[in-house]
Write a sequence for this structure.
């Protein structure tokens, strides 16, 4: 079952940053402000790469999602999660009372309630507006899991340390005549293995 999704309140660039500048500078043992602009740019790049790697929007946004012919569906699975709040539900053009549905936020499930019991949805058109995702570390009351934030810090630190290096060069040793080792392919935007490991539980798996 497919749906159409519209973002009604998008996260700003700053509210998409999955780690703080302070955390990155602490990781790199940098006290000066000389590199702040460059590091912030790397944070933006890492945040985008992590969202792409996880195949989901991580920052908190409010969206409107519409389904057609959901009769027999139990529960409705929202495209984004975790869900922090349901703004409203409209069933065949009629706003539903708040006591006729409930959400399982961590799973992104939306249940229809009849006399406080869970039942299958019966609707030709169902529209749900909800807020989903996490509040990032720079926001008040941040909710982003530490693993995601740590993955961003690791990626930024690795990219910063690797600046100026040949991305195709694995190692280079000088002992007598010297030696070099080259990798077959390289992607300067690739996330480090440690970051990928930290993110494994947050990746959306293909059906």
């Amino acid at each position: 079952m497919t749906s159409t999704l519209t973002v009604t309140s998008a996260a700003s660039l700053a509210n998409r940053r999955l780690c703080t500048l302070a955390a990155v500078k602490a990781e790199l043992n940098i006290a000066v402000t000389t590199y702040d602009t460059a590091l912030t740019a790397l944070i933006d790049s890492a945040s985008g790469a992590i969202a792409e790697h996880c195949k989901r929007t991580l920052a908190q946004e409010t969206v409107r999602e519409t389904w057609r012919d959901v009769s027999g569906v139990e529960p409705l699975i929202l495209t984004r999660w975790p869900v922090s709040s349901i703004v409203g539900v409209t069933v065949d053009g009629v706003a539903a009372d708040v006591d006729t549905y409930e959400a399982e936020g961590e799973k992104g499930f939306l249940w229809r309630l009849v006399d406080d019991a869970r039942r299958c949805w019966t609707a030709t058109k169902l529209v749900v507006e909800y807020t989903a995702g996490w509040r990032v570390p720079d926001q008040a009351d941040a909710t982003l899991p530490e693993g995601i934030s740590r993955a961003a810090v690791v990626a930024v630190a690795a990219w910063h340390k690797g600046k100026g290096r040949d991305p195709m060069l694995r190692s280079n040793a000088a002992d007598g005549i010297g030696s070099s080792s080259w990798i077959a392919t390289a992607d300067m935007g690739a996330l480090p293995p440690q970051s990928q490991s930290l993110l494994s539980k947050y990746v959306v798996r293909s059906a």
The chain is about 25% helix and 30% strand.
